Amino acid sequence: MKRYEALAAQLAALVEEGVLRPGERLPSTRTLANNHRVSPATATQALYLLEDRGIVQARPRSGFYVNAHWRAAQPPAVRKPPVKAATLDVSELVFEVLATIRQRDVVPFGSAFPDPSLFPLDKLAQMLGRSARRMDPWRTVEGMAPGSDELRRQIARRYAVQGVRVRPDEILITAGALEALNLCLQAVTRPGDVVAIESPAFYAALQTIERLGLRAVEIATDPVHGADLASLAAAIKRHRVAACWLMPTFQNPTGATMPVERKRELVALLARHGIPLVEDDVYAELHDGADPEPPAKAFDAEGLVMHCGSFSKSLAPGYRLGWCAPGKAFVRVERLKLTTSIATSIPVQDGIAEYLKHGGYDHHLRTLRGHFRAQRSQLLAALDAHFPAGTRATRPRGGYFSWIELPGDRDAMALYRAAAAKGISVAPGPIFSAQRRFANCLRLNYGHPWTDATARALATLARLAN
Amino acid sequence: MKRYEALAAQLAALVEEGVLRPGERLPSTRTLANNHRVSPATATQALYLLEDRGIVQARPRSGFYVNAHWRAAQPPAVRKPPVKAATLDVSELVFEVLATIRQRDVVPFGSAFPDPSLFPLDKLAQMLGRSARRMDPWRTVEGMAPGSDELRRQIARRYAVQGVRVRPDEILITAGALEALNLCLQAVTRPGDVVAIESPAFYAALQTIERLGLRAVEIATDPVHGADLASLAAAIKRHRVAACWLMPTFQNPTGATMPVERKRELVALLARHGIPLVEDDVYAELHDGADPEPPAKAFDAEGLVMHCGSFSKSLAPGYRLGWCAPGKAFVRVERLKLTTSIATSIPVQDGIAEYLKHGGYDHHLRTLRGHFRAQRSQLLAALDAHFPAGTRATRPRGGYFSWIELPGDRDAMALYRAAAAKGISVAPGPIFSAQRRFANCLRLNYGHPWTDATARALATLARLAN
Question: Are A139 and B318 a contacting pair at CB < 8 A?
Fold first, then answer.
């Protein structure tokens, strides 16, 4: 990112966070230059960029002002789902949508992934080659599930930093987090069982429930504070809930994060009923602040929390490396792993372990978090500048998705199709619900550098939504 | 392998194949030296090695003779399984056995793997590092199931060499063959369905059937010529068979290979009933002759054969790379892959594709086949020299397993335990059967270089079996 872009992102964040309100004057070019230690030319460029993006407007002989049309977006409100448990058939719709949002030439608001150029792929390649050349051939025979000792040790160290006590021998390495989530859910359920999920939920949870012949009960989920515990308690009362699959931190698609106390209560509630929690925590490292959010696993005294993580979102997309710490179901999960894929690629495990030891993961993460923070501000500022009045959006403290609620009866599926025809992807609300709810909602990705093309695409999307 | 070892292996093969019979005189040192273009010293060393191994004995002033105690092993006969379909619970036993046979310090007759030092791991590491450094970052997003185009093209070329027409876009890349087999079986069955398997069968088939809540019907299987089609036809008549999971070539554990005509009839029989065949063909490249065995897939006009292959046994153990060509169930299998593990590691796919293009795969395979051929001869000769009279053994034309039937009521599980206590692993017959049949059978691995320690361990095993 160039210096003027970085400055523009900082200013956009101030606007987006309400520090600078609509109609207020921005600092002068000279003040900006002094305070941010940039040249006056850079400060001017930053202001012009904000003007281009509709966030500020110039008033002759007076300076730059926050655009009066700009409104601080409110997050969507919680919506109560039906309390019935249902078998699912969302997969057809999800597959159709996923096929369109994976293309490189499409503006990727609908993508599930961040921009791959944000990752240290060169360094990873070096580590991969180096560790593969050094690999003891016998590791290919002995390195079955649960996985590389060194990698598990490195992961346990990161847990420790988050204040979670997980020993290396409690960790099982998997081919990405999705395999971990699948194995964990399968280890604690039988076909026909009821699984509690968020509403909206990550579509892979819906697909897994469908594939395993389970039934889903949707739990009311606040787009800011996550799954509602009263709603969960009611579901447990009404159904024999065999397991929960939840994302308490930076939930996909809303970006919601349960407050720490709510996480603690969640674990206590489930412990009272002996219900396992499959905790999908793949965005954990992508918090935007100085401190990580503790996972629900941090409060797990009973071994009921099956915590699943991944390097795909934070370090090594495409390497397909994840893990789980499945608590007391460890042996069952390990056996499922052995009978479904035997082991996770040994050179990949070794390469990532080598990177974690010597690659500078924390440095990379700081840079990555900065990108996502700036891009979030740019997306939200542009949404406010262009989208119809009454549009709501979440401003997550981590991850790279915002959940958008369009006003009234606007149809996200129609918008998805109209946008696709113009080379723009969005993830429409109904793919995140067993009952195809959230008909006027979208998940937008801010994991990609904000460019002029992005800005134009967002303006186009806004036109289509108006 | 040193020259004298290679010569000894050739001579052992002649004995084992019955070209040289017990009591017959071997060619003189000078004749051997001339015919095999080695020095007389090398020829003498080869003869001493055969003597050490109990295959020949020296008679003073006369030369070397095939040991009179040596008997050409007969293969075990076919055993009819019960015709009922059953739910399974073999996993406990299998897991127990697998844990003991994976240890490096154990003599690995029970191992499922060949010696890892027989593979070009250095070259693969180079290719892996090189291709990872060159990887287009966008491939991490776009390279979802079905997998790398270049790798699928390389695999299609190998099919073509075998005379099988499979297009690149009919191939799906998986995390090893076991994932492919699992996804294929799951794509064509529902819980409660009946699946026809061999008897004995690869234990992973039993475990998958158990995990997916299916029922198994065991098909009588000749340890030389494979699954019996009359038995299969009877099972189809009696049960609604939803799918077959068979290894028509170099079957695990027997090493059986169906004659080509039987493969053709198998495909025709299943086509008449519209029953899919999951064809496990992971040893295809490990044939011992000049020509590969055609898979059943070669005769598949209906798209009912779901052919599964792997690089784990022939090229890259521990990389976890396999594939399937699932015929008309392709889309269903692809979707299962997307919802269980999304994609197979991109750098691993690229590294193997690079090796297939530039690494010298055919050269490596010729060397590997030579090792297995020689080691098979050494194992069978030693079996004949040491094991109790009436022991039967298969002499497979590929792969690296021989199936041993001990005479009478000898107990393979007891032998397995007694051997484990002496640091020797064997794979006991009952882990290969849903009904824990084959109580007096063993699978022995000849995928490891034959050493003095191997010879001593086999003699120990023979003592325990006597």
Answer: yes
What contacts B136, CB < 8 A, 6 or more positions away?
none
> B103 to chain A: which residues are within 8 Å by CB?
142
Picking from B102, B141, B348, the nearest residue to A102 by CB comes out as B141
Task: Compute φ and ψ for B38, nearest 5 degrees.
Answer: -125, 170
Nearest CA in chain A to B178: A341
- Entry field: residues in chain B: 466
pLDDT confidence of residue A102: 65
Which range (A136-140, A424-428, A445-449, B439-443) has the least confidence?
Answer: A136-140
Rounded to whole angstroms, how far apart are CA atoms A167 and A155?
9
**Which residue is closest to B351 within chain A, CA to CA?**
A129
| Residues within 8 A of A (CB atoms), B 319-378 only | 319-321, 335-336, 338-348, 351
Closest CB to A132: pick one of B117, B128, B345.
B128
Among all residues of chain B, which has the CA nearest to that of A316? B140
Residue B72 has pLDDT above 60, yes or no: no
- CA B49 – CA B62 distance, rounded (Å): 18
Average predicted confidence (pLDDT) for chain A: 91
Within an 8 Å CB–CB cutoff, is residue A121 touching chain B?
A: yes
Q: How confident is the model at residue A99 (pLDDT cuts 50, 70, 90)?
A: confident
- Are the beta carbons of A340 and B178 separated by less than 8 Å? yes
More confident residue, B307 or B22: B307
Q: Which CATH class is domain A135-358?
A: alpha beta
- Asked if A320's CB is within 8 angstroms of B175's CB, the reply is yes
* Phi, psi for residue A21 in degrees, rounded to 5: -100, 160
Q: How many residues does chain A have?
A: 466
A111: nearest CA in chain B? B141
Q: Would strands B401-405 and B441-445 be described as parallel, antiparallel, or unpaired?
A: antiparallel
Was domain A3-66 assigned CATH 1.10.560.10? no
Give the separation between CA B164 and CA B153, rounded to whole angstroms.
14
Question: B130: which chain A residues are within 8 Å (Cβ-Cβ)?
Answer: 129
Q: Which CATH number fits domain B363-465: 3.90.1150.10, 3.30.750.200, 2.60.40.1120, 3.90.79.10?
A: 3.90.1150.10
Domain residue ranges in chain A:
3-66, 135-358
Residue B7: both structure tokens together: 């010569």
CB B397 within 8 A of CB B250: yes
CB contact (8 A) between residue B104 and residue A129: no
Residue B76 pLDDT: 87
What pLDDT does A436 receive?
87
**At CB < 8 A and 24+ separation, what contacts does B417-422 make?**
B418/B464, B419/B109, B419/B460, B419/B461, B419/B464, B420/B100, B420/B106, B422/B457, B422/B460, B422/B464
pLDDT in tens, A42-76: 999 999 888 877 788 888 888 898 887 666 568 88
**B182 contacts in A (CB within 8 Å)?**
339-341
SS (H, E, C) A83-142: CCCECCCCHHHHHHHHHHCCCCCCEECCCCCCCHHHCCHHHHHHHHHHHHHHCCCCHHHH
Cα–Cα distance, A204 to A189 (Å, whole number):
17
pLDDT one-digit tens code per residue, B173-215: 999 999 999 999 999 999 999 999 999 999 999 999 999 999 9
Q: B195, B209 in Cβ contact below 8 A? A: yes
pLDDT in tens, B266-314: 999 999 999 999 999 999 999 987 678 999 999 999 999 999 999 999 9
Please, what is the end-to-end C-alpha distance for chain B in angstroms?
A: 32
ipTM score: 0.86
Which of B117, B132, B320 lies closest to A128 in CB terms?
A: B132
CB contact under 8 A, A178 and B339: yes
What fold is seen in the domain B123-358? Aspartate Aminotransferase; domain 2 (3.40.640)
State pTM to two decimals.
Answer: 0.87
